[in-house]
Structure formats: structure tokens, C-alpha cells
Specification:
The complex is a heterodimer of chains A (344) and B (797).
Chain A: H1 2-18, H2 22-33, H3 38-44, H4 53-90, H5 109-123, E1 127-129, E2 134-136, H6 137-140, E3 160-162, E4 165-167, H7 173-185, E5 190-199, E6 211-221, H8 226-241, E7 247-254, E8 257-266, E9 283-293, H9 295-300, E10 309-316, H10 317-325, H11 331-335, H12 338-341
Parallel strand pairs in A: 1-5
Antiparallel strand pairs in A: 2-4, 3-4, 5-6, 6-10, 7-8, 8-9, 9-10
Helix pairs in contact in A: 1-2, 1-4, 2-4, 5-10
Chain B: E1 2-4, H1 5-8, H2 18-27, E2 31-37, E3 43-55, E4 63-68, E5 75-79, E6 89-98, E7 108-110, E8 113-115, E9 117-119, H3 153-156, E10 162-167, H4 178-189, E11 203-206, E12 213-216, E13 222-231, H5 240-248, H6 256-268, E14 273-276, E15 284-289, E16 295-297, E17 303-305, E18 311-314, E19 319-322, E20 326-327, E21 340-347, H7 349-359, H8 364-369, H9 377-391, E22 396-399, E23 402-405, E24 413-416, H10 418-425, H11 431-440, E25 444-447, E26 452-455, H12 466-477, H13 498-512, E27 516-517, E28 523-524, H14 527-531, E29 556-557, H15 562-574, E30 580-590, E31 601-611, H16 616-628, E32 635-638, E33 645-655, E34 658-666, H17 668-673, E35 680-686, H18 687-693, E36 709-718, H19 723-733, E37 738-747, E38 756-765, H20 774-792, E39 795-796
Parallel strand pairs in B: 11-22, 12-15, 27-30
Antiparallel strand pairs in B: 1-10, 2-10, 3-4, 3-6, 4-5, 6-9, 7-8, 13-21, 13-22, 13-23, 14-21, 15-18, 16-17, 18-19, 19-20, 24-26, 25-26, 28-29, 30-31, 31-35, 32-33, 33-34, 34-35, 36-38, 36-39, 37-38
Helix pairs in contact in B: 5-6, 6-9, 10-12, 11-12, 13-18, 19-20
The chains are: A alpha+beta (344), B alpha+beta (797).
């Protein structure tokens, strides 16, 4: 019986080695280990053995069964491994075929730039506020220290709703609103930005639009200096355009700031080296206008210029968007052609 | 403003090259836009006198000239030029000469006769047509008769140098002239500035014998009027040096008198007008408003209607000049004028600007008069003109002057506290430097140990208070040299308004759901309300009107975002875009009164517009998904009376009784009006109401512990039964055990009677505290069938 067991073991293991798939393995399992299997039959006939022989043969039989079971398991795993390798080989996809992706919409490029600017300033601790598009002449001009005979007040420059109402020509009147409220509510110091639509009497052409967008910034506190203004602008220009971008402060004139300056940024094409796009100057067109809040403006809002000082700046968002995205014509921004919007 | 550097050098020492000068001026506030190079590449062009002119034997349009170039035999040159005559001195390009336009001169043959060169025009020397002198415009340059012969044209015409194109800011009209720019240059470079020395050598007679008076009737429009007289005029071309300097400054030489007045205007910034005195009725000059119905023929020989807001300079009878803008034709200086009256006056800048705009007339003079000019300058400029006319031998100055209005100037005093300047600039500029900057600007300043006291000269109309002086000090010190310093103060959190946060979230949700954001104008055409079929008495037509719109199409502040949305859809559709899903957040404007005097209400609205592969339920889904993120579950109500929308396919979005928006299919009339042949879906929502009803206090709800059971149910009902009503009734059957009811199919057609539909729902049952049994569920399911049968005559399919 021992011999029989050993022979059976050799036979079973040999056959398992040649197995190619799971069904063959199963056949072998049934043939040897099944209810009517050969090994089972041997085990059943153990009763015919002598008392002495029984433990020895029993032990061997159990060993043989364990071994065959183990080998069956191993063979199964081998087949499984082979099969999955074969499957992986067969299942190659053409990954260049188009994906099924959900539709994603687009933000308007102007709004993207607007929110990017706002978020830079919010991170620096500025509030984001808004003001109406229809403004009072008082807020838009008078309290901003605009001389009564200033050409910007002319009907050929500004859209009028009535003698005392205009479509705001800049976002600066928001400064007046914020300063007056801050004085009333005792909410000083002020750090704010405001973005929005502004309007000027310009016919539509490649670079002009009667409606455009601006961002305004105002800081009012005790001891605010021009040196602080320079620092804020340097910081935000680097944040927006990267650290290679340089700024240049050039004295200018605005009614509501004194001193006033315009800020040029390095030419985005040559980064300041000088190229045909910037007439060899290394500077691109002015990015923004800025200055120290005019003492008359502070007074108009109920702030004492001997105690408080402030700085302000304003910039055109449309042009920033056009430079940033390389948009050659401002009309594209307001046509809203889906094929245009899709690009951003 | 064009500033020839050569000219400026007469009044200031410049010790740097042009590029450095431009950069330095820019950094002290005179923005140099460009440096224009006047150096011309000209070789082999010399002066010559025309000895004789004869008709070409073989060509009607050509002449044969003999020209003396002070070397060898006279040259034979054939030309077609018309403006030459015998004895004229002209530039001659000799054989081998090179012109700036690249032309190389060779000996050539014109119909059988050789020509040994070419006479040259200003155009060929690279001059812009607008500066070429009248007599040389249509042909060859005619040089003064005393020009030496055989001289290099580069020297004769001084074809060298460069000019700065300067952007002068609104507050600095005193820089709109060469002397003003020279003063800035001196302060910028720290070099010496020299005002021109004005001196008249000889005066003859008395002005009162020539001019009966000058008067100012309207002092609000004219603060000073100063007049002098010059007699024995000899009108002719001005000297070449003056012509060339004017040309380099961008002006066309006309004749000696006009050139002198232009020269002085460019030099000092004071516009000057000269009248033919003998043509002035009553020999008087009066600054007054034009009378009702008055007209004037201006020097361009155009008759212009004047109105009573315009200032004129009139003689005893009629306007002789539109003050500060353009002279009259009848009193213009012409070749035979013998005596002239010289006007230098100070006008109201706003009035000049309005007059020049109204008449569509802009000149170098009006551009300067539109800005404040110190009235002291009237006298200085007038004497400068007399000096120059005398100097070039164009006339004799008559003694004395007549004037009206202000004449004395008492310089205002402004003080500057140096510590205040440094505190505002964030710099440490020494007092000595401040004094130096101000004094080189000719702002006479002294320091008394505490403050600087400055006397403001007449030409600085912009300096009124300390801040203005701080600016002067700061810009000459250089903003670039002030070191950046971070803002001090406690740290704070930047905030946005709640409305802005809702707006931002709406935009990110809609963008995430595949919609594109658009941006359109706040003003629209009043016709737009017709295009969206707004009713005649619709409140949409009560809009804020722009008094001076760019055109009728931009005259109404929008009361709805839908017309702009329709236009964008129309544009995209016309351009062949097949699908578009768009949104815009923007303000609408609701007037409080008409005509509008009060600030209107501005409401933030959201519009959505879609066409192409989408329908009503896509739009509904987007809106409901978006609103769900604000915790809003709106009720719906059919809207059948909004003419913009399809009456059977439009819903109002209600929170309780309050409508927060509308959505649906655009009415076919509206799509017709926009020339669209496909369906369009539109929505307009009130963003402020979304904020008002927003409820996003999300709280955790325990996850289900027990399994759900799902049963489907399909019933046939009449077409007019609403799915929403059925869902509601189903839920009511067992609100605690029915977790959800979802429609999954609506079927009409085969096996379903006409006028009926099969609706299939999937009902999910779940209990919070136990596993439900089949029997329990079946019982509720039975009940649902009964209720549907009862309420809707539903029949199990």
C-alpha cells in the first residue's frame, strides 16, 4: 500500500506539472482527491491494514494528500498568473483614441484676470468691495478733486444720466464711498480693492471700448508713505507677472493724488533688454496710475490729512488680460464667441 | 509736444546724450514717448542759382536750365518742376549724389538733351508734407536769394539733430513750449536755464494813433487783453533758420509774420493773433461773446455759425476772430498788409475747449488756450514778437501798448514743511536739496529753519498747496530713488461681501457644469426690448436713459440681461457655432424716477442661455443643481404671460410666494426676431434673492443602517397629469418609509391610447430602525396604486 501511495504521488505530481488550465487541474483533483478519487479509495481501504501498519501508512497517506493539495494550489496559481499575463498582453488599448470627458465650462478671460488680481490683494489683507456703475458727479469727480473745467467732465468724455449722475469713468469713486463710510462707522484703517465696469465716451476700435474694466486700490492709515506704495506695487506685479518683471515709477498727474506716478513694467517680450516691441526702451506701456491720496480728497471725505495719509492706484484690467493672453483686439473680449472663450 | 533739442539748447545747457536726456526727463515727469532722429543721409547736394530757363525743344512739360554752382561751367539740368524762376537759389543733386530715400543721381538724357543732375524737393530730403513751406510744397526747395552758392545743403538747411516727443501732463501746460521744457531740463540735469533776452531796439510813433482801443466785455471769458502795433510791414518768407526751426518743431513756415507769431507761441507757450489793422472797423478790438446769429468766415474760408457762449474778438462791428481758436478771413495778414495789430490775450480755458469742440476746429493755438496760461505772459510774448519782427526786418514797432483786464501779478506764497515732505514720501531728502530743486524750477524758495516758503511764479498755475510742492521735491529727487518699504500695521483678513461670494460660487458651479461665462455691455439699444417682445407697458421699458450715448444702440441702461444673451447667441449661431451654453452675471438698472435724477437701483442678475444639443430639462437640471448648492429647492409655476417665453414651456422659480427667477424656452417670435431657426432656452435669476434664501448650514445625517428596497411602478395616465403632482402623492402615502421617488420613463405610442402616457417610477423604501419586510413594502406599494388610481385615474400598465 505504501508503494501504491508513492506511485500515486509521483503520478499526480507529474500530471500536475503538465496542466495548462484550471479544468485539467480540477480533473486531477477529482481523480485523486474526489469522493471517488484514487487517494480517497486508498484511505478508505486503510481498515484492511494491520494495527502496526496503520499509523505509518496513515501518516504517509496524509502527507501525500497534503502534498497533492499543495501542488494543486500551486498549479492553480501558476495557471492564474499565466492567464492574467496573457490577458494583459491581449488587452492593449489605443490610448490615442478620444476620451469621454465631461463638459467643462469656461470663465471669461477678463473675469479670470479680475479674480486673480482680487485674490492677490485679499491674500495681502485687502477687502474686496464694489460700487455702482451709475455714480454721482460728486463721487466720480467733485470729491476726487477734479477741477470743474477738467476735460474728463465734458459730455464728449463722460456718459451723463443727468446733471448729477454719470456712468462712472473709473473705479476711483469707490474710494470716496469707502472713505466716507469708514469715517462714519469708525472703520479705519482702510485697505481695499475694487474691480468693475467703467465707461468712457470712446468709439469702439481695436484698443478702445466705451465699456472697460478697472481695478482700484486704496490704503488709508496713519503714516502711509510713497515708499509703502512702491512696495505694494512691486509685490503685486511680481505676484501677477513673476519675479523677473521690474517696475518703473514715473511722475505723472492725476487730480486725486499728489504726488502722482505712472508705473511701467518691463516689456513682457524682452524682459527689459530692449526690442522692437518696446521701441528699444525695455519698458512696455504704463500698467497703472498711482499716487498719494490728495489732501483735498481726504478732507472731502472727512479725514484730516495732518493725521491720515493714503495711497491709491488704478489699472485697466482689459489691457492686463490682453497682454497676459496675447489678445490683439479688445472687441474680442465683448463679442463672446464661444470659440474664443474656449481658449482660456 | 515736439521739442527739437537744438532749439532747447538756446536756453539750457545740456551735457548728456539724447537717450540719457530722454530717460532723465521721463523720470522727472516729462514722459518722452520717442526720440526722433533728424539726421539725414544726404551726399553731393549743393546750392546753385538758376541762370536761365528755356523750354525743352522736344518736350512741352520740361524746361532746360543752366545752373551756377560756383564751380566750373554752369550745369545743364532738365526738370519738370513748375515752381522755379530765373535767379532762384535751389539745391542741386550732382552726379553721384545720394538722397535719404535711397535715390542715386546719374547723368541722364531727356528727349535728346543731357541733364547733369537734379533739383531737389523737401520731400526728397525726407520731410513730412505737413511742415514743407508753402512756396516749396509743389516742387523744388526755393532758398533765400543770399544763400552762398556751391554750399553743401546739409549745412545750409542744417539737416542734423533730433527732437523729443514729450507727453505733457494736464497740470503742466507751462511745459507746452520750448522755454518751459528747457526749464524742466535744467532742473532735471541740474544745469543753467536762460530765459530769452527781450529787447526792442527802436519804436516809432504811438499806438494810440493807430488803434482806438482794446476792451473786454466778458471778463469771465477773457482776463487780459494786450495789444501792440507794428507798421511798415514787408511780408515775405522768414529767414531760413526760423523756417527750419519751425519745421523741426512740426510747423509749416508760411510768411515772416505768421512764422514769428508761431515761433513765439512754440517758444513761450502764448498763442498770438495778428490782424490787418486797416481792415478793422473802428480800429478797435473787443473781446465779447458772439451775438445771436452772428457768423464769421475763418481763414480757411469756411463760414461758421457762432453762438452766444463763444468768445470772439470783434472790431466795432463784427467778429474778427474766434478768440483763441481761429482768425477771421477778412482781417487776415496778407501780402500787402501794411500795419498789424498784435493780440496776446488770456482766455477762459473751458470756454476755448468747448468752442473748438463745437466748431470742430483744433489748432496749435486752441490746444494751448484750452489750458491755463499765466496772464503775465501776454506782455512778454507780445514784446518778443515785436523784437523778432524788428530783428528780421519785417516791420517797425510802434511805441506803447494798449491793454485791458488784469496786469499785476502778486506771487502766491505756499509753505512746505520738510519733515512733512519726508514723512509722506517715506524718504530722507535734505532741506538743501529741496531748496535747490524748487529754485532751479524758478520757484523762489527760502528756508527759515522750520519751513520752506515758496513764491509761486506766474507760469506755475498748478501749485496751490503743500502737497504740490512735495510732489515737485519728490519727482526731482526721483521716485525711483525712494526705497520701497513694506506697509506697517496689524495684520488683517481681506474680506468679500456675501453677495460677491454667492456670485463667485454661482459662477464656479455653472462653469463646472459646462457653461461659458460671457461679458456684455451695460447699455443696450431700446429696440432690444422690442426684440425680446416686452409688452408695451412692461416695466422693462422703464429704463435709465443715457443723455449723450455713443448712438441710439447704446442709449438704454439694461433692465434685463436677456437681450444681450440673445445677441451673443445670435452671433455664435450666425458664425456656425452649433452648441452654446452661456451665462452672465451683471447688473440691471431700475430707475426710481423719470427723468432720472436719483441714483437708480442696481440689481445683480444672472442670465443663462443655451441652444444646440440641449432642451428645457437640461436647463432645469442646471438651475436646480446650482440652487441645491445654496440649499434652495424652488417650487415651479407655469408662466404663460411673459411674451419673451414660450407659454407652455416656461416656469417661475418660487421660494414660498417669492419669485427668484424664470426659465424656459424662448418664444418663437423672439427667436424669429434674432433670425434663429432653432430653439433657445433662457433663464434670468435674481442673485440677491439667492443670497437671501441661501441656507447652507449643512448638518450630518447618520448614514443608513438598514437596506433599502426598490420597487418600480408603471401607470398609464392622461397627458395632462403632471409628473410632479404624481411624485408628490406617491411620497405622501408613507413619508417616513418612502425614501425617494424617481421618474425613469415616460412612454407614448404603440399600445398606449392617444392622449395618454405611460409613466414609470422607481420607489425606494427604507426604514431608519429596521430591515423592511417584503410584505410591508408590498402593502405600501398597493396603496400607492390605489392613490394614483383615485387621484389621477391611473391604470396599472
Amino acid at each position: 500500500m505504501k508503494d501504491q501511495l508513492l506511485k500515486l504521488k509521483t503520478q499526480a505530481l507529474d500530471r500536475l506539472k503538465e496542466c495548462k488550465d484550471l479544468s485539467e487541474i480540477e480533473k486531477i483533483r477529482i481523480q485523486y482527491l474526489g469522493k471517488k478519487g484514487e487517494l480517497t479509495a486508498i484511505l478508505r481501504s486503510m481498515g484492511s491494514l494491520s494495527e502496526e501498519e496503520r499509523p505509518e501508512v496513515g501518516k504517509l497517506a496524509n502527507e501525500v494528500r497534503a502534498l497533492i493539495e499543495e501542488e494543486i494550489q500551486a498549479a492553480k496559481e501558476a495557471v492564474h498568473l499565466r492567464e492574467s499575463e496573457e490577458r494583459l498582453k491581449k488587452e492593449t488599448l489605443d490610448i490615442t483614441m478620444p476620451g469621454r470627458y465631461p463638459e467643462i465650462g469656461r470663465r471669461h478671460p477678463l473675469m479670470r484676470v479680475k479674480e486673480e488680481l482680487e485674490s492677490v490683494f485679499m491674500r495681502m489683507g485687502y477687502d474686496v468691495v464694489s460700487g455702482p456703475e451709475i455714480e454721482t458727479v460728486a463721487n466720480n469727480f467733485d470729491d476726487l478733486n477734479t477741477p470743474y473745467d477738467h476735460p474728463s467732465r465734458d459730455w464728449s468724455d463722460t456718459f451723463y444720466i443727468s446733471d448729477n449722475l454719470v456712468l462712472r469713468t473709473h473705479t476711483s469713486p469707490v474710494e470716496i464711498r469707502v472713505m466716507k463710510e469708514a469715517v462714519k462707522e469708525g472703520k479705519l484703517p482702510i485697505r481695499m480693492v475694487s474691480t468693475g465696469r467703467t465707461f468712457r465716451f470712446d468709439d469702439v476700435d481695436d484698443t478702445h471700448s466705451p465699456m472697460f474694466h478697472q481695478m482700484e486700490c486704496l490704503v488709508v492709515d496713519k503714516g502711509v508713505t510713497l515708499a509703502n506704495l512702491k512696495d505694494s506695487i512691486d509685490q503685486f506685479v511680481k505676484e501677477l507677472f513673476g519675479s523677473r518683471m521690474k517696475t518703473r515709477f514715473r511722475p505723472h498727474n492725476f487730480p486725486f493724488t499728489e504726488p502722482s506716478a505712472e508705473v511701467d513694467v518691463s516689456c513682457p517680450i524682452c524682459m527689459g533688454k530692449g526690442c522692437p516691441a518696446c521701441n528699444g526702451t525695455g519698458w512696455s506701456m504704463e500698467l497703472l496710475g498711482c499716487g498719494m491720496t490728495h489732501p483735498n480728497v481726504l478732507r472731502n471725505c472727512g479725514l484730516d490729512p495732518e493725521i491720515y495719509s493714503g495711497y491709491a492706484f488704478g489699472m485697466g484690467i482689459d489691457r492686463v488680460a490682453m497682454v497676459k493672453y496675447g489678445i490683439p483686439n479688445i472687441r474680442l473680449l465683448f463679442e463672446n464667441d464661444v470659440r474664443f472663450l474656449k481658449q482660456f | 509736444m515736439l521739442v527739437p533739442i537744438k532749439w532747447m539748447k538756446k536756453y539750457v545747457d545740456i551735457d548728456v546724450d539724447d537717450k540719457t536726456l530722454a530717460d532723465k526727463l521721463t523720470l522727472t515727469g516729462s514722459h518722452v514717448d520717442a526720440v526722433i532722429d533728424y539726421n539725414k543721409e544726404v551726399k553731393g547736394v549743393v546750392t546753385g542759382r538758376i541762370l536761365e530757363i528755356a523750354q525743352h525743344p522736344n518736350a512741352d512739360k520740361l524746361v532746360v536750365t543752366k545752373i551756377d554752382i560756383n564751380e566750373g561751367e554752369p550745369l545743364q539740368i532738365i526738370t519738370g518742376a513748375k515752381n522755379i524762376k530765373k535767379d532762384d537759389v535751389v539745391p542741386v543733386a550732382l552726379e553721384g549724389a545720394e538722397l535719404p530715400n535711397g535715390l542715386k543721381i546719374k547723368k541722364s538724357n531727356f528727349r535728346g538733351l543731357p541733364s547733369y543732375g537734379m533739383m531737389v524737393s523737401y520731400e526728397e530730403l525726407g520731410f513730412d508734407d505737413k511742415v514743407i513751406p508753402k512756396e516749396s510744397r509743389d516742387g523744388i526747395i526755393i532758398l533765400p536769394p543770399d544763400t552762398p552758392l556751391g554750399a553743401d545743403i546739409k549745412d545750409v538747411l542744417d539737416l542734423t539733430g533730433s527732437a523729443l516727443e514729450v507727453e505733457v501732463t494736464f497740470n503742466r501746460p507751462d511745459c507746452l513750449n520750448i522755454v518751459g521744457m528747457a526749464r524742466e531740463t535744467a532742473a532735471t540735469l541740474g544745469t543753467r536755464f536762460r530765459f530769452p533776452k527781450i529787447e526792442i531796439k527802436k519804436e516809432e510813433g504811438n499806438i494810440k494813433d493807430y488803434l482806438n482801443g482794446v476792451e473786454i466785455e466778458d471778463e469771465d471769458l477773457c482776463s487780459r487783453f494786450y495789444a501792440r502795433v507794428i507798421k511798415d510791414l514787408k511780408i515775405g518768407p522768414s529767414p531760413l533758420w526760423m523756417q527750419r526751426i519751425l519745421m523741426d518743431a512740426g510747423m509749416r513756415p508760411i510768411n515772416n509774420i505768421v512764422d514769428v507769431t508761431n515761433f513765439v507761441m512754440l517758444e513761450l507757450g502764448q498763442p498770438i493773433h495778428a490782424y490787418d489793422l486797416e481792415k478793422l472797423e473802428g480800429r478797435k478790438l473787443i473781446a465779447r461773446r458772439a451775438r445771436q446769429g452772428e457768423k464769421i468766415v475763418t481763414i480757411d474760408q469756411v463760414e461758421r455759425d457762432l453762438d452766444t457762449n463763444m468768445l470772439v474778438i470783434a472790431d466795432a462791428e463784427k467778429p474778427a476772430c474766434i478768440a483763441g481758436v481761429m482768425g477771421g478771413y477778412y482781417s487776415e495778414i496778407c501780402d500787402d498788409t501794411k500795419i498789424l495789430a498784435l493780440e496776446t490775450a488770456n482766455f477762459n480755458p473751458k470756454s476755448i475747449r468747448e468752442t473748438s469742440k463745437k466748431l470742430g476746429l483744433r489748432s496749435e493755438a486752441s490746444a494751448r488756450n484750452e489750458k491755463p496760461i499765466g496772464y503775465v505772459l501776454c506782455e512778454i510774448a507780445s514784446n518778443r514778437v515785436c523784437q523778432l519782427i524788428e530783428m528780421i526786418g519785417a516791420g517797425t514797432v510802434v511805441g506803447g501798448y494798449l491793454q485791458a483786464g488784469k496786469s499785476e501779478y502778486e506771487p502766491p506764497v505756499v509753505t512746505l514743511r520738510p519733515h512733512r515732505a519726508n514723512a509722506l514720501l517715506g524718504a530722507e531728502i535734505p532741506v538743501a536739496d529741496m531748496l535747490k530743486f524748487l529754485n532751479t524750477l524758478e520757484i523762489e524758495s527760502v528756508y527759515d529753519g522750520e519751513k520752506i516758503t515758496s513764491r509761486i511764479p506766474y507760469f506755475r498755475t498748478d501749485i496751490e498747496q503743500e502737497a504740490d510742492l512735495i510732489e515737485e521735491v519728490g519727482r526731482l529727487y526721483g521716485f525711483e530713488d525712494i526705497e520701497s518699504k513694506p506697509l506697517r500695521g496689524s495684520t488683517r483678513v481681506g474680506r468679500k461681501s456675501d453677495l460677491r461670494m454667492v456670485e463667485d460660487e454661482i459662477k464656479s458651479l455653472l462653469t463646472g457644469m459646462g457653461l461659458y461665462e460671457i461679458t456684455t455691455y451695460s447699455f443696450i439699444s431700446p429696440k432690444a426690448y422690442d426684440n425680446i417682445c416686452a409688452g408695451e407697458d412692461s416695466s422693462l421699458r422703464n429704463y435709465v436713459r443715457i443723455l449723450n450715448p455713443l448712438g441710439e444702440d447704446f442709449s438704454s441702461m439694461r433692465t434685463t440681461l436677456l437681450p444681450n444673451m440673445m445677441e451673443v447667441i445670435q452671433r455664435n449661431s450666425n458664425r456656425g457655432v452649433e452648441v452654446a451654453k452661456l451665462y452672465e452675471a451683471g447688473s440691471v438698472f431700475i430707475p426710481k424716477d423719470q427723468p432720472v435724477t436719483e441714483e437708480p437701483v442696481e440689481k445683480l442678475k444672472l442670465s443663462i442661455g443655451m441652444y444646440g444639443a440641449c432642451d428645457f430639462f437640461d436647463l432645469k437640471g442646471i438651475i436646480f443643481a446650482m440652487l441645491s448648492r445654496f440649499g434652495i429647492k424652488p417650487e415651479l409655476k407655469y408662466v404663460t404671460d411673459n411674451p419673451t417665453f414660450h407659454p407652455g414651456r416656461t416656469a417661475a422659480l418660487l421660494v414660498g410666494e417669492d419669485a427668484i427667477g424664470i426659465f424656459g424656452e424662448a418664444s418663437p417670435k423672439v427667436t424669429d426676431n434674432y433670425g434663429l431657426d432653432h430653439r433657445v432656452y433662457l433663464a434670468e435669476l435674481d442673485v440677491e434673492k439667492i443670497l437671501q434664501y441661501k441656507n447652507t448650514e449643512w448638518k450630518y445625517d447618520p448614514l443608513p443602517k438598514y437596506p433599502a428596497m426598490v420597487r418600480d411602478i408603471a401607470v398609464i395616465v392622461s397627458d395632462d397629469v403632471l409628473v410632479g403632482d404624481m411624485e408628490e402623492e406617491i411620497k405622501k402615502v408613507s413619508p417616513y418609509l418612502i425614501e425617494s421617488v424617481e421618474l425613469f420613463d415616460v412612454y407614448k405610442g404603440e399600445h398606449i391610447k392617444e392622449g395618454y402616457k405611460s409613466t414609470a417610477f422607481s420607489v425606494t423604501y427604507r426604514s431608519k430602525d429596521r430591515t423592511m419586510k417584503d410584505k410591508e413594502v408590498e402593502k405600501i406599494h398597493e396603496k400607492i396604486l390605489q392613490v394614483l388610481a383615485q387621484k389621477f385615474n391611473a391604470v396599472l400598465r
